[in-house]
Fold this sequence. Notes:
Elements: H1 15-21, H2 35-45, H3 57-65, E1 72-78, E2 84-90, E3 95-101, H4 109-122, H5 129-138, E4 139-144, H6 149-154, H7 175-187, E5 191-197, E6 203-204, E7 213-216, H8 228-247, E8 252-254, H9 264-270, E9 274-280, H10 290-309, H11 317-321, E10 326-327, E11 330-342, E12 345-360, E13 363-374, E14 380-386, E15 391-393, E16 396-402, H12 410-418, E17 421-426, E18 440-442, E19 460-464, E20 467-473, E21 476-479
Parallel strand pairs: 3-4, 3-5, 5-9, 7-8, 11-14, 16-17, 17-18
Antiparallel strand pairs: 1-2, 2-4, 6-10, 7-9, 11-12, 12-13, 15-19, 19-20, 20-21
Amino acid sequence: xxxxxxxxxxxxxxxxxxxxxxxxxxxxxxxxxxxxxxxxxxxxxxxxxxxxxxxxxxxxxxxxxxxxxxxxxxxxxxxxxxxxxxxxxxxxxxxxxxxxxxxxxxxxxxxxxxxxxxxxxxxxxxxxxxxxxxxxxxxxxxxxxxxxxxxxxxxxxxxxxxxxxxxxxxxxxxxxxxxxxxxxxxxxxxxxxxxxxxxxxxxxxxxxxxxxxxxxxxxxxxxxxxxxxxxxxxxxxxxxxxxxxxxxxxxxxxxxxxxxxxxxxxxxxxxxxxxxxxxxxxxxxxxxxxxxxxxxxxxxxxxxxxxxxxxxxxxxxxxxxxxxxxxxxxxxxxxxxxxxxxxxxxxxxxxxxxxxxxxxxxxxxxxxxxxxxxxxxxxxxxxxxxxxxxxxxxxxxxxxxxxxxxxxxxxxxxxxxxxxxxxxxxxxxxxxxxxxxxxxxxxxxxxxxxxxxxxxxxxxxxxxxxxxxxxxxxxxxxxxxxxxxxxxxxxxx
Length: 493
């Protein structure tokens, strides 16, 4: 689990800063949109029915239909498995903006933020009525909150045909891809927001900070040239970055702009829609991405305000290119300079471990793996151990059989680890069962996998002389001298 970390979002921009960020336009008068305003809007209109990122198509539908009186809600088509793909349209202004989310079924952070935005736009009688009036008069917004409902229900990237929809913009093999392309062609938006999630292991190069949000104005050709269409996207992103640096300083990256001829973002740019890619990454302590949901809401509302007031013209493409690039240098656990045995000799190596989510009929669990080893100095760990003077040791299975997991306490489990036992056997219970103990629980077998080589399950001990000093269980580090409360929920061994 990631460390708990929060940064207060109640930061207020002064009037002087606002006038700089939102220059007066001959057509519109900008409203004061401070960070405080944006967070207040979110807290007032956050959708309470969505509390986690694994929600289904069926759970989303009533959250769409409840806005049918304020939005034009339309069924655009159906998925491979016959689920509806809906759009919501709002506003009567001359500038058309299309926002689409969950093209990849397991990338749902922005979908939650869009539902919050629906609530905000439909609201009335509060301090934001003037802002809504401005947005309604200047913009026409089209939302497609769930492009890949079959993938969303399985919480997987691809659709029911096992096709990556973001590599299907040209061939349009999947019905979902055709729906998105047809919606774009019919609506002809000037701006587009392509909303995704990225892995939590992206950092803002060359720092150890997570790329909580990554932004990109996709290329429209191999040469990654800049025309007016792409330039508008870059200017809009530069304005978004100014806000994001207030919210998550140093945690904004620029996604790789290598041209992908099959991708929707690249082709939307090519087709004349200024396209902004938002990738929601990691935020320490925010496993269900509720903080990043808030950030998405705030930056989207801020960007729409910038488009409505044309204040994005106050930024340059140089401001866009000043955003640092993404890296991919984060690990869940780095163990540095541990001694490992080979052919009777000991070698000092660094071990880099990542943990990944695996879907199950109970939801999901996390499983660790040795990602790489050797000289890992270019990587950063959410948790890092200087293991100089420590040696690798295989763990044993405790010979006595327990009736069930309930017969073991955390204190007993820690004592077994100190004795070199990494796993226990139980008579009753499911073969793979969720538990809260810091060791492996076996039922139908007397062996477990573990090791220090690449791809191995990271289950082993670290010794200092004859003392077992640390245990590594499923990629989680346990300090046996100063054990912290082990958060082992939702993990299956």
